[in-house]
Amino acid sequence: MPIQLELKRIIINEIDEDQVIVLNEVDGERSLPIVIGQFEAVSIDRRVKQLSTPRPLTHDLIVNAIELSGGEIQDVLINDLREHTYFAQLRVRQAGELIEIDCRPSDAVAVAVTARVPIYVNESVLGDALDE
Amino acid sequence: MPIQLELKRIIINEIDEDQVIVLNEVDGERSLPIVIGQFEAVSIDRRVKQLSTPRPLTHDLIVNAIELSGGEIQDVLINDLREHTYFAQLRVRQAGELIEIDCRPSDAVAVAVTARVPIYVNESVLGDALDE
User: Fold this and answer.
1) Sheet containing B31-36, strands listed edge to edge, beginning at the edge strand earlier in sequence
2) CATH number where B24 lies
3) Mutation for testing the A interface, residue in B102, B103, B114, B117 having most A CBs under 10 Å
């Protein structure tokens, strides 16, 4: 059963390329830190702060492409952890069907904050992450 | 009448944030240099070199999202230049209709090299760019 998470912190580190976002359980105490790239961290940060731009940025483009194609982003799911690497999916409703689009968690979270949809993680992934 | 361009050079500048891509006319001599961000330049460079990654990167995600939604990317078009800023569109065929999705030229070019579709520019944009 997937567990809902919310974006709690974005830790921007100017010295290093790798940045960290922390996702907290909505109905619990556990948290999931994920290392992401600088571009994705800045992109998520801009969206959380609702900074506007004259042209659609990359994650706006993803949301617009899906919506103009007739899809509705239902949620995003961090669905797997293999060899210290997280995997995720955008879950899109289109013509009554559920389409799962593979992506990295950083893109999934950036899309979730852009489209204002929930973020979920599989229980097994959250458990494995905390055991590492 | 749109003019077809091809990606000629990616100039990666490690000192500065701004990078340059140069698009050349396929049937002519004119070229169009566009200043883009570092992330987009690296993303285009990776695609041109066909470097593979274990997880879909952001521009793979855009292409996959459109294709899994039943769309076919026809081409990309750099359609406008206003106040020194270029505007572009992804042009997607879906169920016999043409959908135009606004984006930045850097995302358009990254999508074009990922999906292997042509890049076009409006004649007026190319003319205005060369007059600047």
Assistant:
1) B31-36, B19-25, B3-11, B119-121, B72-82, B85-94, B97-103
2) 3.10.690.10
3) B103
